Amino acid sequence: MIKMAVEMISSGIAYPAFAVVFIVGTLLAYTVISLIGSS
């Protein structure tokens, strides 16, 4: 029962964290491309 709760919490944290990392990485890449393109 405790193991199930831990797994649920872990997956609940992992998905939003992955989404945030993906979004931040995309924005960072876009910013770098924009800076390179403008220079």
Structure, described:
The protein is mainly α and 39 residues long. It has one domain (1-38). 95% of the residues lie in helices and 0% in strands. It has 1 helix and no strands. It has one helix at residues 2-38. The longest helix is centred in the middle third of the chain and has 37 residues, at 2-38. The radius of gyration is 17 Å and the shape is rod-shaped. The model has no long low-confidence stretch (mean pLDDT 90). Keywords: Membrane, Transmembrane, Transmembrane helix. The chain crosses the membrane at residues 12-36.
**In percent, how helical is the residue content?**
over 70%
Based on Cα principal axes, name the global outline: rod-shaped
User: What fraction strand?
Assistant: under 5%
Our count of domains comes out at 1
Helix and strand sequence:
H
**Span between termini:** 57 Å
Instruction: List low-pLDDT spans.
Output: none
List the helices and strands and how they pair.
Elements: H1 2-38
Please sum up the structure shown.
It is built from 1 helix and no strands.
List keywords for this structure.
single chain, 39 residues, mainly alpha, 1 helix, rod-shaped
